[in-house]
Amino acid sequence: MKYTQILCLIVLLGTAQGCSFHSRSNENPAAHYDGWVLTFQDEFNGEGAPDPDKWEVPEFNRRNNNDGPDGWWRKENAYQDGAGNLVISVQKIENQNDDADEFDYSSGAVRSLGKFEQRYGKFEIRCKLPAQPGWWVAFWLHSQSVGNVDSTGAVSSGEDGTEIDIMEGFGWTDKVQSALHWDGYGKFHKSAGKSTVIDGIRDGYHTYTLEWDEAEYRFFVDGAETWRTTDGGVSKVPAYVKITGEIMTAGWAITDKWANDPAKADYPDHYIIDWVRVYKKK
Question: pLDDT (tens digit, 9 = 90+) per residue, 148-158?
């Protein structure tokens, strides 16, 4: 075979492999950080449904919207691809309700509820953000006690449970966001957040990290600190891990302040996760 034919064959093989979601990092997670002990991990080396010993895959109407299509969480939208990734997908589906809308939307989610939770530590994900507008993806922590509120609403009570959004990302903008929510989701709800624009953040895989201790929260993207805060009073209760995609067509969600309009999107689209790892201080 001529040299040029061999070269073309190599290029073709490389291109075919490039069609896969896979982009495995080669580090040893157990020895990645001095002073930290690995307590939870998933490298997503399987195929099909996520590991049931680590993840619950919820299925319900996550984003009910009386003015338009709903955003469902469905089990088929969260799967391992057999190439070392967890894939959270979004798609347009036939209407799930008896209303005038022809289509709804669905996305996927996994959570370690009832399987793993931890107070304090280092929480990390290596992932690739989606490419299409109209939905948002996240890596976050949740506690069952987030809904606890002070009866007057005057005293911040994040210490007894806080939603910790380590990363919220989008398919249409280079903005990523971290946020905290406490005192429930009703009239006493309080929140704080930090948005960061990072050129090229939607290209390739990136690592998002939270370091959480009794004193503060510290957020990082690819090892660079993006936010340090004690807002709400640092949570003192264990939290479980969530990896999610969400979509909604209500007015607040479809503007350029948030997810943008799914009507502009070409679905399906994918949020691709290489690994998740959690550590504790030695």
Answer: 886 555 556 79
Strands 103-107, 71-73: pairing is: parallel
CA distance 68 to 249: 6
Give the model's pLDDT for residue 6: 37
Q: How far apart are CA 147 and CA 190, in angstroms?
A: 11
Please give the helix or strand (H or E) that residue 246 lies within, else none.
strand 240-247
Walk me through the domains of the chain, giving residue ranges and CATH numbers. Answer: 3-281 (2.60.120.200)
Q: What is the DSSP letter of 14?
A: H
Measure the CA–CA gap between 81 and 84, rounded to whole angstroms: 7
What does the pLDDT look like over 35-55, one tens digit per residue?
999 999 999 999 999 999 999
| pLDDT of res. 93 | 85
Q: Count Cβ atoms below 10 Å from residue 26 Cβ, excluding itself.
A: 4
pLDDT at residue 100 tops 70? no
Query: Coil, strand, or helix at residue 265?
Result: coil
Cβ atoms < 10 Å from Cβ of 200? 8
Report the number of secondary-structure helices (H) and strands (E) in the chain.
1, 18
Question: Torsion angle of alpha carbons 189, 69, 108, 196, nearest 10°?
Answer: -50
| pLDDT above 60 for 13 | no
Output b/e per residue, 48-68; b: 16+ Cβ within 10 A.
eebeeebbbbbbeebbebeeb
d(CA 209, CA 193): 15
Phi, psi of 33 (to 5 degrees): -125, 125
Other residues' Cβ atoms within 10 Å of the Cβ of residue 102: 9
